[in-house]
Amino acid sequence: MSAAALLSTGEEFDDAMADATVALGPAFWEEVLTEIYRAEDAGVKARMAQIRQARIKHASDLMTHLVADGIGAPVHKTDVETYHAWAWHFRDEQDRPDYSCWNDDTFIREWVRDNPEVRVKLDKPGNRVGWTPAMEGRVTLTDGGI
Hints:
flat
């Protein structure tokens, strides 16, 4: 008889998993997750990459990104393992990763086009304080008003 057959409800299963987590400790679960991740199943690796990229996208959307003169602006934020995987995809003759793809404007443009989850939202650059049509005709402190 399996252990699952002894548990009749989802709540009992959740309680059993909580007890197992405490009893086995975090090192055990880290090893389990590492083994799952190391599995040759490309679907598992792809799903984990999607989860990491979703977290990166969420954090990126909470930040303000601006264009910096002379430096430029961030275009994408890509998961580290995906970054390295593409370098291995374009490996050189000595079977070493070739990271030059990430310096290629065409590759980056296509990467961002095909993977909208890596895009970085930019705030509009420019002067946020200054003349607007609504300010025309207002009295200023230098005119002696107020």
